[in-house]
């Protein structure tokens, strides 16, 4: 019992001494550890330049022309001359309606015209005879009767000609032809079906897609801002005769090679969406754009002088204002807020809050806090938004000869 009382204080003393030595060693190791180097970040040197001011709008493709093809005469469809979904030229045969009855009506009209024409010479000769006998006892009544007979014969000829022309038109209308160049839809009728003149159901639909319309929708609020900027002289617009630069991006993200032009703009705001409809026109020689296709259009509306912030280097705060991080002269990180910004291609264009030579952080800013020390590395941004490091300056000197 006495031995245990003696050993217990000794063991506690040894344990405390061991802990003291370990703490001291850890403190010495921490004091001797090297400081963490500043994080490298890519920075873009800012410079004020004149940049195009753009707006990006979504829209849908619409056919340049569209026609529901209907027969103008009735009958049985005898032939479908086109392949569904094919391209046709103006005047190409689409459908052939059986024309037997129309040919018979044409022949009957021809005979009626010939019969009417035969009576005209006899009526003319009879009138001339009464004119010669006017002073030899022929009555005025006989003369007027002969004159009326001639006029009736001439009217019968004119009527027969009109009937013949109608019969000829009806016979020609049995061939349903394309009114313009375009692509055909699926046919709604087959060979043997009976159709009637100007029926409700169309035979097919023909659409012209070269050129093609792109209908865009712009917010009325944005239009008011644009008009205000022009009125205040902040926005340099193009000449009135200059072609508006409109470029498209297709559904798969690829750029459409053709440049479009403004065709018309609705002079009224939709009461349901608050937007203004803008129609643009694009050449479509390879038929890449089809009616109903969704596209995004970038329209250059003017120019403005300012600083461009790539979209990859920007963010938004809780109020929706544009934010970006910069490196100060002491290589410290600071966040700047821009209450006014506009779109310029793939960048944001701002006019204040930046000076020439300021360094904008391009990447990694999401994980860097303000006042953190960083190692800025100059870089550029290509047209697609990728960061391209600038080559380090060559500090080597050529050996002297």
From TrEMBL:
Residues 113-170 form a coiled coil. Residues 107-174 form the Multidrug resistance protein MdtA-like alpha-helical hairpin domain. Keywords: Coiled coil. Residues 66-205 form the Multidrug resistance protein MdtA-like barrel-sandwich hybrid domain. Gene3D superfamilies: 2.40.30.170, 2.40.420.20, 2.40.50.100, Helix hairpin bin. PROSITE patterns: PROKAR_LIPOPROTEIN. Its main location: other. Residues 211-302 form the Multidrug resistance protein MdtA-like beta-barrel domain. The keyword Manganese does not apply. Residues 308-366 form the Multidrug resistance protein MdtA-like C-terminal permuted SH3 domain. InterPro entries: MdtA-like_b-barrel (IPR058626), MdtA-like_BSH (IPR058625), MdtA-like_C (IPR058627), MdtA-like_HH (IPR058624), RND_pump_MFP (IPR006143). It is found in: Cell envelope. Belongs to the membrane fusion protein (MFP) (TC 8.A.1) family. This is Efflux RND transporter periplasmic adaptor subunit. It comes from Rhizobium oryzicola.
């Amino acid at each position: 019992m006495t031995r245990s009382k003696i050993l217990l204080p000794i063991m506690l003393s040894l344990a405390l001494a061991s802990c003291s030595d370990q703490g001291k060693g850890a403190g010495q190791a921490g004091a001797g550890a090297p400081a963490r180097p500043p994080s490298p970040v890519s920075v873009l040197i800012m410079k004020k330049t004149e940049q195009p001011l753009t707006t990006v709008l979504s829209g849908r493709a619409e056919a340049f022309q569209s026609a529901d093809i209907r027969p103008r005469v009735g009958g049985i469809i005898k032939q479908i001359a086109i392949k569904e979904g094919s391209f046709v030229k103006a005047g190409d045969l689409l459908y052939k309606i059986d024309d037997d009855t129309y040919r018979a009506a044409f022949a009957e009209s021809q005979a009626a015209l010939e019969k009417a024409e035969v009576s005209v010479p006899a009526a003319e000769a009879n009138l001339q005879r009464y004119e010669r006998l006017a002073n030899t006892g022929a009555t005025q009544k006989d003369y007027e009767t002969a004159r009326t007979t001639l006029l009736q014969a001439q009217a019968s000829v004119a009527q027969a000609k009109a009937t013949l022309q109608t019969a000829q038109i009806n016979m020609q209308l049995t061939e349903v032809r394309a009114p313009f160049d375009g692509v055909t839809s699926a046919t709604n009728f087959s060979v043997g079906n009976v159709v009637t003149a100007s029926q409700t159901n169309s035979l097919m639909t023909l659409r012209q897609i070269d050129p093609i319309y792109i209908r865009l929708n712009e917010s009325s609020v944005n239009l008011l801002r644009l008009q205000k900027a022009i009125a205040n002289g902040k926005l340099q617009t193009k000449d009135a005769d200059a072609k508006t630069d409109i470029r498209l991006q297709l559904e798969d993200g690829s750029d459409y090679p053709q440049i479009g032009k403004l065709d018309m703009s609705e002079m009224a705001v939709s009461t349901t969406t608050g937007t203004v409809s803008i129609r643009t026109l694009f050449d479509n020689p390879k038929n890449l754009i089809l009616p109903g296709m969704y596209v995004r259009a970038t329209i250059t509306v003017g120019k403005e002088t300012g600083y461009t912030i790539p979209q990859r280097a920007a963010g938004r705060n809780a109020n929706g204002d544009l934010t970006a991080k910069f490196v100060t002269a002491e290589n410290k990180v600071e966040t700047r807020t821009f209450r006014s910004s506009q779109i310029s291609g793939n960048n944001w264009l701002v006019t204040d809050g930046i000076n020439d030579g300021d360094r904008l952080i391009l990447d990694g800013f999401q994980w860097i806090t303000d006042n953190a020390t960083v190692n800025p590395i100059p870089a550029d941004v290509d047209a697609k938004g990728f960061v391209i490091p600038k080559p380090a300056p060559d500090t080597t000197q050529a050996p002297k000869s």
